[in-house]
Amino acid sequence: MSQQVLSPAIHEGRAGRTFGRIFVSREFSVFAALAVLVIVTVVVNPRFLSGQGVKDLLLNSTIFVIMAVGLALVVITNNVDLSIGSILGLAAFGTGSLFHAFPSIPIPLVFLIGMGFGAVLGAINGLVVTIAGVPSLVITLGTLYIFRGISNAWAGSTQYFIGNEPPAFGNLSVQTLFGIPLFAIAALIVVIIAAVFMFSTRAGRDLYAIGSDTDAARLFGIPVNSRVVGAFIASGALSGLAGVLYASRFNSVGADTGTGFELQIVAAVVVGGVAIFGGSGTVTGAAIGAVLLTTMTGALAALNVSKFWQQAIVGVLIIAAILLDRILSIRTARKLRVSEARNV
Amino acid sequence: MSDTPTMTPNTTPHQTTRTTATAAPVKARSTARRLLLGRNANSVYVLVLIVILASILVPYFAGTATVSFLLIDAIPILLMAMPMALIIISGEIDLSVASTAGLSAATMGVLFHNQHWNIWWVFVACIIIGLLCGAFNGVLITTFGLPSLAVTIGTLALFRGLALVVIGDSAVADFPTDLTAFATSTIGATGIPTFMIFVAVVVIVFAVILHFTPFGRALYALGFSTEAASFVGIRVNRSKFWLYVASGGISAFAGIFWVLRYSSAQSDSVSGLELSVVAAVLLGGVSIFGGSGGIVGVVAGVLIIRTVNYSLQLAGLPDTVLTIVTGTLLVLSVIAPSVSARIRRSTEKRRNHNITREVSSA
Fold first, then answer.
1. For chain A, domain boundaries
2. Is the ipTM of this complex over 0.90?
């Protein structure tokens, strides 16, 4: 990520250094950390990488990866969306209610409704943030509780057990294509679409510009407000999608589904190299961060570490990641200053 | 990645709030006018209005039982809102208060029940842990220059996680009954909780610090501009560091009260209360961008939140649904000042436009 602090345009011209860049990139170091984690765990507990183990890992990562991609879009614009856990909960419970009310509803329609529902909730966040011009953190902290309250009011103590109702829906989470779970493929498609969007479309590049310097982006003629609202809508829609997938994977959904997910996703995104100040990082990094976080949860269990440590480790990861970002950016700034001084 | 702290995005409503706020002392309003018209006063008016409405509309609202139930649940919010107000005025935020209180509650349970410490030493240990939590936030924010928002999201997870590590999924409930009874006792027949005496002391101390000391005045300067503040000789990092230490200590104190009031220490004690605290401070007229607000308003803000929640509880709404109300209050308290600033700006623009037209026609 240290290169992205500089203008990315400087680097795009030099194709010859691409190989070197991959090795120093943040994505690579997170991936390396993931590899080390997996290797250590396997050495201690060989069952960790059994066929079923890998499949579980991929399935469990799916939901976090999809949400992390959505949140990364928002964080890159120097905003944050803390309401995603609640959006996932509402979408998951909504899925349960849909199947309860219309047992024969076509499954693709359920996915569409879930994403649409999430998009509407995301649009509410985005519109309030941009129209009122207030920090997204406080607004989405508010909507975190509002959406959760709505799902409490809606669900009460109802729990839906969807797994068996339309068997085809519950089976989605166990189906594979060439041995790879269908869900993992869905997550991969989401990552690829988002990565291409961020890398090569004008709107994607605009998000980076907004995150680096909102005022400059506005002066430059970038439609800042609509881009930011767009990022929030995407984040909401992806959380909605994750909610539908959650309902299929975990069968039981209720009022408190997805509580506390937002912290884990924030951790995944910052660990994956998306700077919390916006303007740098990639969705691929965020996705790898999400896989790392899920793997860690699995590894803790495999290593017989008390499950109570998990949340503390999430906190440590968030702080370590922003600390690392800070140190890297100070280093880059110093290097730049030295090289500029030489040029004079 | 910018080097500026991220708390204050340079949006235009932000700047208008600043100009209006700085313009106030120049106009040299009389004290009486300032007391009656300031943002502090607005919160008090809203509070009075809500209390009157609740007394008329909600059955059983008017009575001493209301005073004690309303105030006893206001105590932890009121305590944490004091340092939070100072932190937000200085342009930062602390989202980890409820987790700090939770960690202190969990430690209290374990030291008392499993380690058989004397309860007074347990209190001392809890406060020290709170101070250390605050110092940890403070070091990360001042020494390393990290954005307070991101740091305290991290410590929100970390401190709550440590509470889980400390106490696991068990609960401790065998605290000395004289202490737990004291926590829920009231002063005579007034219905005011005895504990409010401590809270009043804390509120007065923070009010004096903020409004009557150079340190407090410096916090407003910090909220306007960190750079300008350091130019005029304010020790920015040192002030911020001590604010976070104070926040940690007071949060731990609130955690102790929480445990005694509910006679139970668990890993999820006090969870989610940061929402009410931030909402109360903002409802009390403190600007989320820093630089303005006062203690009187914050106290009114806390009471607004409690009154609304309590009257809805009396009206029969379940607790879980009440989070909708608190969340909505938070969102409204943030957008109201910026919307009103926008309206003011547009009327000013229109007025200026009219003046120029008159001048040019003359």
1. 2-343
2. no
